[in-house]
Design brief:
By secondary structure, this protein is an alpha/beta fold. It has one domain: Uracil-DNA Glycosylase, subunit E (3-Layer(aba) Sandwich). It is globular. It has a four-stranded parallel β-sheet, sandwiched between helices. Strands 1-4-5 form a three-stranded antiparallel β-sheet. The chain has six helices and seven strands. The model has no long low-confidence stretch (mean pLDDT about 95). The termini are far apart. About 35% of the residues lie in helices and about 25% in strands.
C-alpha cells in the first residue's frame, strides 16, 4: 500500500442515551469499504465488546449499531481525515479531527475510551480540555501482544460506567 488521503466517510453511532464514547483513530480500509466501525474480520473489537456487555455477538453492521445504542455506547473516530498508509496508525499525517465537542454536547457522555495509543495521543492533542480519556488496548489484528483475556479485563471498565 501507499500513503493516501482518506476521509472518514460515515457518521458516529450515538443517541440521547449514550453514556460512553469509544474512539478509534480512523476506520481501516475494510471498515471504510463496509461503511461501519471495526469491520475487519480479525479485529477483536466486537467479540470483546459483546462479551464485556454480556450481549450476543453481533454479525451485521445493523446488529452492531443496535448493540451500541441498546447499551448506551457511542462510537466514532478521533479523525475526520488524514494521510494514512492502509490501516497503519503510525503512518498518520496531516490529521483533521472530527467534531467530538459537538457530539459530547448532544448526549450525556460520562466517559471517553480510546482504542489504542494513537487514538489516545490524537484525542489528547486535539481535545485537551474535554473529558479525559481512558486508553484501552487496540483490538486490531496487528496488536497480538495483548491476549483476548487481557482485552476482556481492560475493556470491562466500560461496563462499570454504563451500569
Amino acid at each position: 500500500m501507499s500513503v493516501e488521503r482518506v476521509e472518514h466517510g460515515f457518521a458516529p453511532v450515538f443517541d440521547e442515551n449514550s453514556r460512553v464514547l469509544i474512539l478509534g483513530t480512523m476506520p481501516s480500509p475494510k471498515s471504510r469499504e463496509a461503511g461501519f466501525y471495526y469491520m475487519h474480520p480479525q479485529n477483536r473489537f466486537w467479540r470483546t465488546l459483546s462479551a464485556v456487555l454480556e450481549e450476543p455477538f453481533p454479525l451485521t453492521a445493523d446488529e452492531r449499531r443496535q448493540l451500541c445504542l441498546r447499551c448506551g455506547v457511542s462510537l466514532w473516530d478521533v479523525l475526520a481525515s488524514c494521510d494514512i498508509d492502509g490501516a497503519s496508525d503510525s503512518s498518520i499525517r496531516n490529521a483533521v479531527p472530527n467534531d467530538i465537542r459537538g457530539l459530547l454536547a448532544e448526549c450525556p457522555i460520562k466517559a471517553v475510551f480510546t482504542t489504542g495509543k494513537k487514538a489516545h495521543e490524537l484525542y489528547r492533542r486535539f481535545f485537551p480540555d474535554l473529558i479525559a480519556d481512558v486508553c484501552l488496548p487496540s483490538t486490531s489484528p496487528a496488536n497480538r501482544a495483548v491476549s483476548d483475556d487481557d482485552l476482556l479485563k481492560e475493556y470491562s471498565v466500560i461496563k462499570e460506567v454504563i451500569k
